[in-house]
Design brief:
Length: 450
């Protein structure tokens, strides 16, 4: 039977969960209007807004929270436009690089009071509040979820070809496996990752950069650019090696093209978040059954298995926002309801991982088909990936990076990759080009780093 996402939600709703941490209501708000909430593509933003509307029905009957879907790479430009027009959204679910930039630019409301009410001791072991966004001693971002991209492998193909356990692979093994699959099963690409000029390529390459031990900036030295390095060149060389085993159109791929390649059976392996499995469960059951997620192949020297883990969070724009108090209360309501947080995670399994212990350890969360059909993969996304977390917003978890949003706005990492795979530039020369671009961004934004 095909697994439908709406069936997951229906099953969750029937469990009769209790919001054990539900916050007490304050006096009813007399305000009226539509509270605009921005969310990235995916059902989970709508689930969160449903919780907020439940709060509004009891505490602010004149308000209606309404979700607006914004593309992954469109939030900053649209926010700047809406700020200039004095009509920003009241609340945004945002990826961590942009959150770090906005809080450093003092465009957000500090949320320490919300964090205190949500419970600072609730985080899953291995997580810290500042992973989502703390700046100069203040918390500006409330956790929504974490979502690492991992190595997705068609284990039916690796078993058929007698290949080794993906959990034991190094970079050398990964390249050899991709080559073997391409040679022995020419109708299937060995591996797929994004190589287009877009955010997905930025994220995929950043993980390889961090696995090699490289970084864009040295946070400990006023974000000095460190991209012109042997580690960057090595990561670019590895991309060039893998490229020959990818689908022909990979140089144009972004997020959903990678998902398409895997779900439709055109690749045996891919770098991606849990969204691929959710879609395969609905559209391609054999692919779903054969696919498992693994932490990334180890770098042969550093041993690192870094992923790009987005610590997605909630932020409140500070300017021209008439609903700040109401949004804080509604967000607290959603964040302290185990019932709503379980529904949130179930809405796109295993893409949006729980961040609070009471949710992650709950029997209600495990009342989902994936826990019986894909228990190891779910555990890898939710827990085993955490020790390998990294991102451009917090490279190797050495400190938040307020420059990452600018880097992605200009697609610096993706352009650097394309210098190698399209323009055939030597990896070391591409690293120098990328370093110059990053240095320009740093100089233009010294006000944010002091």
């Amino acid at each position: 039977m095909t697994i439908k996402r709406r069936e997951f939600l229906a099953g969750t709703a029937a469990t009769g969960l209790l919001g054990a941490f539900a916050a007490p209501s304050l006096a009813q708000s007399t305000k009226s209007g539509t509270v605009r909430v921005w969310g990235e593509p995916g059902p989970y933003g709508g689930v969160a807004v449903a919780a907020m509307n439940e709060w509004a029905q009891k505490n602010a009957p004149g308000l209606k929270f309404e979700i607006e879907t914004i593309p992954w790479d469109g939030v900053y430009v649209k926010l700047m436009t809406d700020l200039a027009a004095r009509r920003p959204p009241a609340l945004i679910s945002v990826e961590s690089p942009l959150a770090m930039q906005l809080m450093a630019e003092e465009l957000l409301v500090p949320l320490d009071d919300v964090a205190d009410k949500v419970g600072r001791d609730r985080l899953v072991p291995g997580l810290k509040w500042d992973f989502w966004g703390a700046w100069k001693g203040k918390q500006y971002v409330i956790p929504a979820h974490h979502q690492p991209h991992l190595l997705l492998v068609r284990t039916d193909i690796t078993r058929e070809l007698g290949l080794t356990d993906p959990d034991t692979w190094t970079w050398i093994d990964l390249a050899n496996v991709a080559r073997t699959i391409s040679q022995k099963k020419p109708e299937v690409a060995g591996i797929c990752m994004a190589l287009g000029r877009n955010l997905c390529t930025d994220y995929h390459f950043a993980a390889l950069l961090h696995q090699a031990g490289g970084r864009m900036f040295a946070q400990e030295n006023k974000f000095e650019v460190t991209f012109d390095s042997a580690e960057t060149a090595e990561a670019l060389e590895f991309v060039r090696e893998l490229h020959q085993f990818m689908p022909k159109g990979a140089v144009e791929y972004s997020f959903l093209q990678v998902v398409d390649a895997h779900v439709t059976g055109r690749t045996a392996m891919s770098f991606y978040w849990g969204r691929t499995l959710g879609r395969a469960a609905e559209e391609a059951k054999p692919v779903f059954e054969a696919t498992e997620a693994f932490n990334h192949a180890r770098h042969p020297k550093t041993g690192r298995r870094s992923n790009w883990n987005d610590f997605q969070g909630w932020i409140i724009p500070a300017q021209n926002n008439p609903y700040i108090d109401e949004v804080k209360q509604a967000l607290t309501y959603q964040q302290t309801s185990k019932e709503w947080l379980v529904k949130y995670c179930h809405s796109l399994m295993p893409n949006v991982a729980p961040v609070y212990k009471d949710v992650a350890d709950s029997a209600e969360l495990k009342n989902h088909p994936f826990y019986s059909s894909k228990s190891k993969t779910v555990d890898t996304y939710f827990k085993a990936s955490l020790e390998h977390s990294s991102s451009t917003a917090n490279e190797m978890l050495k400190g938040v990076n307020p420059l990452a949003g600018f880097v992605h706005g200009r697609s610096v990492l993706a352009q650097t990759v394309q210098k190698v795979v399209i323009d055939k530039m030597a990896p070391r020369d591409a690293a120098k080009w990328g370093a110059r671009e990053l240095d320009t961004i740093r100089k233009e934004n010294m006000r944010l780093i002091g």
